[in-house]
Amino acid sequence: MPALFVGGSQVVGSVSLGKESTPAAQFQRTLGWRVGMLETRADKLTKFLFALESTLGDRALPKLLKERVKLEASLLPKLKHRAVAVRGFQPRGTAFAFELPAALLAKIGKEAGATAPSAAGQKPAQLTLVVVPDAERSFIALAPDEKTALRLLEETRAGGLGKLGDVAELQPLKSQPSVGGGFFTLQALWAALASVARARGQDVEGQLALAPNHGQTPWLTRADEAPAREGVRLTASIRLPQKAFEDVAAILPSLANLLR
């Protein structure tokens, strides 16, 4: 478990699934895709995932969970793995394919307050996590399918997703020293709200597409420290560039309707 809590960086993006509103589509739309690097060896990550796969595949597990915590077998996810070649990486990676039952997704949505459609007859959600060794680090990609996850890793290795150093709005993070810094985008935040909004009949994705900068302008976060009389004073801040303000102003009507 400690291997899951490590330093690193990641890029998050959204997936387009049209107007499909099944539990699987809502889950995949909310999660989107992620690709990044972790400051830990790949074998530490895969060891945990192999153990999880073994546990989920134990035939005694459904009965045990039903007796102990009243959890039905229909809610249990499935997991399997296979070795994969990732262009740009010499070691082979491991692709972990998750299958999340529609009943589980509907339950998650209901507990989150969303009005989810019935899980009866619905297909499960597919999710693939690819882990690739890179000396003492690991590269990972999470996507709705293996093909997308592999493409993200290969583009990352080749520089196809661009370099953070080339983004003008991120220059303050490089030029102004701090204890910690980072960024996020309105596009990433909006994606997390999309499934909830769709369940209420609102098209927030369409609203963001019409925003001047489509929610892609980075919002900068930073943490600073300064000496204080009895120790150290820590401060945290978020910096919104002008383009970010323009997008927020454009989506305010949609946000107000969503919060009603």
Walkthrough of the structure:
This protein folds into two domains: 2-162; 168-259, no CATH class. The strands form two sheets. It has a six-stranded antiparallel beta sheet with strand order 1-2-6-5-4-3, sandwiched between helices. Strands 7-8-9 form a three-stranded antiparallel beta sheet. By secondary structure, the chain is α+β, with helices and mostly antiparallel strands. The two termini are 40 Å apart. 38% of the residues lie in helices and 27% in strands. It is built from nine helices and nine strands. The chain has helices at 23-31, 42-56, 61-69, 102-111, 146-158, 171-175, 186-199, 204-210, 242-259; strands at 8-13, 33-38, 78-84, 93-100, 125-134, 137-143, 180-185, 218-228, 231-239. Helix 1 runs antiparallel to helix 7 (186-199) and helix 8 runs antiparallel to helix 9. The radius of gyration is 21 Å and the shape is globular. Residues 1-5 have low confidence and may be disordered.
Global Rg: 21 Å
Helix count, DSSP H or I runs of 4 or more residues: 9
The span between the termini is 40 Å
| Low-confidence runs | 1-5
Walk across the major sheet and give the strand order: 1-2-6-5-4-3
* Number of strand segments: 9
What is the H/E order?
A: EHEHHEEHEEHHEHHEEH
pLDDT averaged over residues: 80
Would you tell me the structural class of the helices and strands? alpha+beta
Strand portion: 25-35%
What is the makeup of the main sheet? 6 strands, antiparallel
Helix content: 25-40%
Shape: globular
Count of distinct structural domains: 2
